[in-house]
Specification:
three-stranded antiparallel beta sheet, about 40% helix
Length: about 200
């Protein structure tokens, strides 16, 4: 289908002007990960299938921002009941999604810290403590890579005392100097730095 009209609110959500609007531009604004579901839902609407909840998807604004949109397509019918077009009702749900994500992150953080606190109270020795905390951060916290580092004051190096993560971790990450500027971040990981 072709888009024949977009009001100022929709243009603002998409970060474009009416003069720039075209079918090609509108399609290109949809996040690549959401396009298959958008086309599937659009096909269901056009075939007359009942569509359940409104569809949530992301618009990639030309300024680099992301707007979360929730859309519902409503068929327009003529006097004979034939579909002559569709009206799209699109709502900006960006703030709602951000609040939901923040709440989910806080809940995950609380669950992780609760588990770590319980482990800290129960651990019999340092090795058991390090292993249990690392496992909690992987299992509950969702981290891919967790390690505990301790200082070796004689060599002025940091030594990884316990680690859960990739088995092919480069050796240079296992021991490094405090002042080594070449240490890089390895994706989403947690570091527990023991300085006692």
């Amino acid at each position: 289908g072709r888009m024949t009209f977009a009001n100022d609110a929709l243009l603002c959500m998409a970060g474009i002007s009416g003069a720039d609007l075209s079918d090609e531009l509108w399609v290109s604004l949809h996040h690549p990960d959401d396009r298959a579901q958008i086309w599937k839902t659009w096909g269901e609407v056009r075939s007359g299938a009942t569509v359940g909840d409104p569809l949530a998807y992301r618009l990639m604004r030309p300024d680099g921002g992301i707007t979360w949109a929730q859309a519902r397509m409503i068929p327009l019918t003529d006097e004979q009941g034939s579909v002559s077009g569709y009206i799209g009702v699109v709502t900006d749900i960006t703030r709602e999604r951000e609040f939901r994500e923040a709440a989910e992150n806080m809940s995950l953080l609380y669950a992780t810290l609760s588990r770590v606190n319980a482990i800290n109270a129960e651990a019999a020795d340092e090795t058991t403590l390090f292993d249990a905390i690392c496992r909690a951060l992987v299992d509950v916290g969702g981290f891919e890579f967790v390690y505990v580092e301790v200082p070796d004051w004689d060599t002025n190096e940091v030594v990884i005392a316990h680690m859960i993560g990739p088995t092919d971790m480069p050796e240079r990450y296992r021991r490094f100097r405090f002042d080594d500027p070449t240490i890089e971040t390895l994706g989403r990981h947690a570091l527990i730095n023991q300085t006692q």
